[in-house]
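Replying to the earlier thread about multi-chain prediction with a worked example.

Input:
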Amino acid sequence: MYNEKFSKDVSSFFRSPVREIFKRVDLNAIYSFAGGYPSADTFPLEDIKQTVAEVIDKYQGKAFQYGATQGVMELREAVARRYGVPVERVQITSSSQQGIDVCTRVLVDPGDVVLTSSPSYLGALQSFCSYRADIRGVAHKDDLNEYRQAYIKTLDQVRAEGKQVKFLYMIPDFQNPSGESLTLEERQMLVGLAEEYDFLIVEDSPYRELRYEGEHIPTMYSLSPDRVIHLGSFSKIFAPGFRLGWAIAHPEILDKIYVCKQSLDLCPPIMDQYVAAEFLESGRLDANLAKSIELYKGKRDLLLGLLEEYMPAGVRWTHPQGGLFLFLTLPEGFDAVKFYDTALDAGVAYVAGEFFHPDGSGKNTMRLNFSFMTKERITEGVKLLSKILP
Amino acid sequence: MYNEKFSKDVSSFFRSPVREIFKRVDLNAIYSFAGGYPSADTFPLEDIKQTVAEVIDKYQGKAFQYGATQGVMELREAVARRYGVPVERVQITSSSQQGIDVCTRVLVDPGDVVLTSSPSYLGALQSFCSYRADIRGVAHKDDLNEYRQAYIKTLDQVRAEGKQVKFLYMIPDFQNPSGESLTLEERQMLVGLAEEYDFLIVEDSPYRELRYEGEHIPTMYSLSPDRVIHLGSFSKIFAPGFRLGWAIAHPEILDKIYVCKQSLDLCPPIMDQYVAAEFLESGRLDANLAKSIELYKGKRDLLLGLLEEYMPAGVRWTHPQGGLFLFLTLPEGFDAVKFYDTALDAGVAYVAGEFFHPDGSGKNTMRLNFSFMTKERITEGVKLLSKILP
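Result:
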């Protein structure tokens, strides 16, 4: 009989509260600001159907055979062209979540330090935990020098402990969960610290192309291509169901990821990669992306207006220039985890901000997604949430 | 600048010689008995095109959204029905390679012992190595009692060292690389030892449905459903490009895999899962499988006949009743790794048997695949290989 003794110590693994919510409730039956789901309205169903047929006619059996561990050349080349990098620096991943996981797998020994922003993406924290990384979160400061000092304090502390910082994990564009972006100066400062203290940066960038206002800011990768591993995703610009992303990095790092992926899953799904490549190269992806941006911008504006109108006094929120989320800060003493059952009973879901904080702080915060629901449901959801908040 | 110091000690990772071959040569330009590729002739291209269109019409946006970490319910149910197990015991994996990897990830701490047959599947050995498992291979013996004693010797040795056997990894049907199967009595004996010495069994079963003669033998899972994790794959019965497989196991084990998969890749590709489910439920998979079996049986028979006719004296080989491989044993002193460059230069590829032996033995063996090439190329390939062998 199976019993616990067979298992390794998995206390370092932790469950995603988002996924646990999805186990409990039907997302379509409640007003869900939880999750990071794109709107299904953005999926170009007829175009995909057409493209699959074209891909099968063009590639025949090759579309269903095993393929290269690095990804099919057509998709690697399409990604390389789009982002202006050499193709030998592109590895296709089976989801950008896998990109995070393999980076951790090839870089982190138990006890190694991973620096993150605080708050940061829950799925990344989960992955770091599962490799028993020592996660140190640094909160954002509006003043650049104060922000730099906060990092230096942590870095010096780590050095004093005789530990090694393997990498800084950062989502510089429309961060999950806060929706906020790093300025160019902040990116330069962090890359400078990486050089000074000699660590790598994992730049996770799934939302970068979903910008609703303002100018694009250079990627951290472009500031230091040999020190930054850039992770991208088709999930928010095409469709998450394909589970495809990419890593752009120094070829020596990609070579380690290549060996790791051999024993992980051999290669990403083949037909799906050809479909993504055709979508990119034909311009269909950009045409579809323009529609998504218009849709999401409208939803963001709506949500900002509704919060202004309905939220109780003392509640603050971020004003993201892109992405899928904004972050709510409630009065001190509010506990978003404890409040969760009340909210679900009333029919509204969010993700408690505490889960995004490596040190368990942020109890009075919550993440709201504005991409998934229709405008009508966003409106009803905000009214409902405002009414039940204390 | 990136340098080695950022990396964890990846000496425990090793490269797949098969994949390295694929990097070096174009498989279609040589006579390739390497790899474990199905024949592209078995991929039902028009049926897949049709099924994708049906899936998109039926599921709409749901086919491209994020999905359940356990896999979509339709596919879990189809697998459960096909193999006669409760649906709560089915987890869909993003390739059966991932099944092996997640089992190791949730069960093995560095230094834990994994028992395997010797030889055994290279991709599994790679995965065990990457988790720093202590792999102990046990060679097959034709006499049941001798075979049992070989395991007992290893188990007692491990016990004497104060180490823990976490699981036995076994491919009981048409094993990779040997093509041989375990008898019912051997399966019962191994399950009995698992109970006596208290370890789990990971039963890897990608070739089980490709039987060309003889009767199906009960799975090890059916002999001990709470102690055996059964891994299956769509790669050999449908198409490997989908990268879909399944794990059937005790719900407590699946729950650990579920948490692990959350941080690994969130969920398997969605549309691909619906396509596989439709293929299974509509009977198209079985119709296609019958054709594959007919094709591969013919190729196996051809290869056996050709070896008989052309191989130099002193070469022996296995007679698989199914699967994709047979295993060649050359005279003592022959080194299949050293011979490899000679073979590639002549235009023929195989996988050296040494790579499948955890202890580095089997230097005079090689694995031959008979599914990938056409009958004409198999014929030319055997003639060529026979001619260059010493």
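The CA atoms of residues 102 and 260 of chain B lie 7 Å apart.

Feel free to reuse this layout for your own posts.
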